[in-house]
Amino acid sequence: MAAKLPYDKDDLTSTWTYLEAGVDKILRSLRDGVNMEDYMGLYTAVHNFCTSPKPVATSFGTSDGQHRGANLGGEDLYKNLRKYLQYHLHSSVANSLSMPSEALLSYYINEWTRYTSAAVYNHHLFRYLNRHWVKREIDEGKKDVYDIYTLHLVTWKDVFFENVQSKVMKAVLNMVEKQRLGEVIEQQKIKSVVDSFVSLGLDDTDSSKSTLEVYRYFFERPFVTATETFYKQESQQFMSDNTVTEYMKKAESRLEEERQRVGLYLHPDIMSTLTKVVTRVLVGDHATVLRDEFQKLLDLDRQEDIARMYKLLHRVKDGLDPLRTKFEHHVRRSGEAAIEKIASEGEAVEPKIYVDALLGVHTQFAQLVSYAFNGDTEFVRALDNACKEFVNTNKLCKEGSSKSPELLAKYADNLLKKGPKAVEENELESLLSELMTVFKFLNDKDVFQKFYTRMLAKRLVHANSNSDEAEISMIAKLKEACGFEYTNKLQRMLNDMQTSKDLNANFKAFQEAMLDGEDLKQAVDPAYAILGTGFWPLGAPTTPFIPPPEIIKTYERFQKFYHEKYNGRKLTWLWNLSKGEIKANYIKGTKVPYTFQVSTYQMAILLLFNDSDTNSYDDIAKATALAAEWLDPSIAILVKGKVLLSTPADGKPASGTTYALNYNFKNKKLKVNFNIGVKAEQKQEVEDTHKTIEEDRKLLMQSAIVRIMKSRKKMKHVHLVQETISQLSTRFNPKPGDIKKSIDQLIEKEYLERVDDDELGYLA
Amino acid sequence: THTPAKTSLQPALNKLFDTYRGMLPYSTCDLTDFPVDDTDDPDQIGADGTMKYLEDLSVSLEEPVMLAVLAQVKAPTMGELSRGEFTNGWEAVSADTISKQASVASQFRESLKSDANLFRNVYKHSFVLARQPGQKSVLIEAAVEFWRMLFSPAGFDWTTKGFNWIETYLTFIQEKWNKSISKDLWDQTLFFAKKTREDPSLAWWNEAESAWPSIIDEFAKHVKSLPEHRKITSADTMDTS
């Protein structure tokens, strides 16, 4: 270092004058460049000043004078630099005072860019100071001493920012408002301001870290307030000038716009606050008006608008509750209306029409829930509640009546039964699934079960089930919905039919082995169904009956066969459900004889005419031993079908009437069915079914109560009632009053006792 | 000191018991001091003996105190007294003579209205008396008679200002209840009567949460529907007694 220094390295004033000129140049015109020589000179000056020993008076009286000396040297430079920066920034403030806000905004950004670039440069220039004096001061816990870069920022904040920030923010907010009103703005400028404000957030405890406090206080807070004011005003204005549906579109797009704004030029930190405020102003404050529109939208089925309303109110706390209530009510009303519509067409409604009406409403609103309410589980629940209401209580199914389960079971029967209206198998499966949708809403599942069991029994006994697979599939569905116990009997019935099939095959082989050719020809071709008494809802015949001799041999043979196979089992013949086909060889003028499909009772009657062309009513009654209630309708159908001719011609089946075989019988079909159930009989059956339901329910309640008490031993009366209701709710909804009566009875029968006025105990 | 006293009363009481045992129908015979032993069971007093006995105690068949006396000696049925229960019952209150027993009876007459424990015992035993032999429950006709006596002003007065609970109850139960009265219903009726006397407004009654036998629930519902009941509830809220 031979060259002479342009300053006295031991003298502060001299050194600082040299440094200030350099720093000033860096601050004002860094863009013009600083040459390496200047940089080295300045850097060395800092180094030299800091390292030169200073014979200063401060060494007196202190224990480590040399150290202090070095300290003081650094401190002087630091203080001078800070003073200079303050001076520099004050002149920037002075320059800005007359600027309009837009110009100020640009000025702020320019100044900021220039200043921070210089700060980086100076930070390097004063590296020696940073490393030694500053580091030591910070290590010793001095506040208000920063590394050189941070010193720049702190000074900026204290001087320039402090003086201009409100004006800058005003400019920013002006721009944003312009943009909200549709003008194009230079949003990059706002982004720069945001970055600058964020940079100024210095952590007091650790200057190397930054916090968002400055940004939040000086940017976010006024920004959010301005936004709130803007949208408050706009939304009120818009709402008074437009329809609610238009408003919702506006609100939706505004919310989206604000969300995007954050990504474009704001700090992500603002997102939640901004969204919250905008949502409150645009949605929360107008929630009542929006909700008031909901019913109208439902009535007009405006799905898109409903979806929009859902999305908007979804953002507000508890915003959807009133909607859900209205929706539930609306669905319920729609369901009731759908049934009222079909109910007006007459008392007896087709099961299909009824079920279709119920399903239609459910399908419509299930679709709405998934489209407009995004499949929201709460809305699904509201839909289910509403469906439960109108499925169980409507104009055709009055409170307390069991019309719904009855009609649904009939509908199932129609689907599963062979017949002209039978549906294709592939279609059948989806219809059964739909049926289950309605089934799940039924309160009185036990009633459905009763009717279904009866009808299944008929289908199986009369072999007119459409498809075995569909029967199995339906039972599987019911089992899935209600459990094993619910379908146990149904399953057993199917099993019985399968076992019977095998049994018939075995019997055929047995018969063939026993009989010779001639006898075999003579024998009737029988089919038997062996039905377990406990599982089938079929009663033994209520009338005595003498089967015709023609079939006696055959059925006795079967009985023998069966008893050999299953010793000790008792067979009861359900003649009332038996049927057969007989050929009418006697009729004149046909090449192929007619075949009559008849009940066994009718068969017994007709076979009498093999021996005699005329038989009196009393003859028939004596020969068949049938009670009048069975005999009379059986004859009546044969007379009506002109198989028999009665004398007198209009004679009722009664003593005194005689019957002759009609040799001139004619029919379009070769196979004629006379085995037709009687209407009155069917009605009686429905009544019987309902009656047994009442009895069954009493038993169900009592056994549930006993079961609960057996496991609990002691229980409060109220809790027992609740528990019983909940245990039985999968089958039917018991009334608390009925449960109380059951409890009364159980106390009387000494299954239970009152251990306290409101507590019951179980008596083993 | 109690034990000797106890044993000492038994002979006297047994003697007194024998006086009434096997008595002839007393209308046809006024030889009251001469017992006629015509029953097979030496430990029982029959109907006529019981009637005579009650008369000697100056207890009328029409007043509830009669039931208190029968409860004291644990009479197995209405016209029957058993030796063991008779002697023990009276010994417990140290009453070994007719006059002492008569004074106990008149004490009962006084305290039946105020002594809840005494009344409850009498009420409970009344169920036993009201039953037909061998039956678990009480015929409705008998129950009505007993209730009318028990819930009269001389017993547990089941009326409140402006409302006659007992008559309303008896009318209702005769109309709506076609079965006999179970022990539970008997017991719960007294409990219900107590509650209604404490608060005749029935504000405490709640069908959904009550544990009453169902007929009592129905009765409560019925009462609430009566205009004269509505009147007393509103009057009651006025004077806060």
From TrEMBL, chain A:
GO terms for biological process: cell division; regulation of intracellular signal transduction; SCF-dependent proteasomal ubiquitin-dependent protein catabolic process. One of its GO terms (molecular function) is ubiquitin protein ligase binding. The keyword Nucleotide-binding does not apply. One of its GO terms (cellular component) is SCF ubiquitin ligase complex. Keywords: Cell cycle, Cell division, Cytoplasm, Isopeptide bond, Ubl conjugation, Ubl conjugation pathway. It is found in: Cytoplasm. The keyword Cytoplasm applies. Residues 403-639 form the Cullin family profile domain. Pathway: Protein modification; protein ubiquitination. Belongs to the cullin family. This is Cullin-1. The lineage of its organism: Eukaryota, Fungi, Dikarya, Ascomycota, Pezizomycotina.
